[in-house]
Amino acid sequence: MELFLFKHQEYERLYNCTNLVIDSIPIENRRLTIEALINLILGIIYFLLYLPCLYSIWKQHWKNDCYTILLYIGIVDLVALLIIGFLHPILALQGAVFCSYPTLIFLAGTLANFVWVAESSANLVLALNRCLQMFFRTIAEFLFKGIRIFVWLLFCTLYALYCMFFIKPILFSGIYFAWFFYPFVGYREDYGEFIFDSLPTYHNFILAVLSPAIYLIFAIALLIKNQKYKQTTNLNNGNTHFSISHLERMVLLQVFVISLLNTTQCVFYIIMQYTATQQKWMSILAEFLWFHIHGIPPIIYLTLNKTIRNDCLHLYKIIRNNKVQQVNTILVQPAVPVNNQTRI
């Protein structure tokens, strides 16, 4: 974004489409119709399902710092779905590449930088929050209680804004049904003076390592703590043992599934940037992984979170009853009174 706003001459030099002929690659090789339609249909479904889930999370967020993070992630996900769930398949159906709509794709790419960094960073905070909350509540309260949770989210936002303004954006290519930092992928093999930013690769690598590391550390902590409680029970000849509530297990499972998707996508996207031109299937798979990271949460919530599921059902019943009431009102409208003075 910095190039586009403040260094436009440099932007024109690096992203100049003057000598590129889009149709030198036939439209049939730039358009993946089936994949695009699946993406678009799922995008609509995910977006519509996310809205009531986000309403439920908003109702609960003041009770639990976990829901505050989920609310932040949910808002970011909705913005991401506008790009990866709607704009992406529409561009794919047209067989578009960067030079088809350079300004639109460049600006969408800068926003995509923001939502990916914001979501993945907040997801890492969420994983840390959940694990600490379950095993080390004192530390969790010290780090996340009250206004402190908003400090974490502010950091995620500022970091994402930095990547949005100062990191080169990812750019759509219908040839590979994916987004790349290089604007002319598939057309020019020589990158010339185009320099790739290293921060996105570092970000994805750190995320891919830290996310599973957090769960591994706390899985070990769980085993040690459980073993300690068993030993204490044996010494006291009691039947008390360390346990995690069903609600806590379900919340941890939700966070784990989302984090697993993030980790897998990070690994694929690092590989994809270097091998996608040889492995087209990998770019398509990585793109659908990215799409589902932002779209699958409502499915996870409705499946595993009873509170959100009940809120959504309640909201659905309210909407349905209002529609039925409106229809009944229309059907039972009183007849127009006949004027007694009217004569035939």
Q: What's the number of extended β-strand segments?
A: 2
Low-confidence blocks of residues: none
Q: What's the average pLDDT? A: 84
Order of helices and strands: HHHHHHHEEHHHHH
Give the CA-based shape: globular
Number of separate helices: 12
- The portion of residues forming beta strands comes to under 5%
Largest sheet descriptor: 2 strands, antiparallel
Q: Give the class-level CATH name.
A: Mainly Alpha
> What oligomerization state is this entry in?
single chain
What would CATH call the homologous superfamily?
A: Rhodopsin 7-helix transmembrane proteins
Please name the CATH architecture: Up-down Bundle
The neighbouring-strand order within the major sheet is 1-2
User: Alpha-carbon distance between the termini?
Assistant: 76 Å
Task: Provide the helix percentage.
Answer: over 70%
* Radius of gyration, taken over Cα atoms and rounded to an integer in Å: 25 Å
Tell me briefly what this model is:
The protein has 344 residues and is an all-alpha fold. The protein has 12 helices and 2 strands; from the N terminus they run αααααααββααααα. The chain has a two-stranded antiparallel ribbon with strand order 1-2.
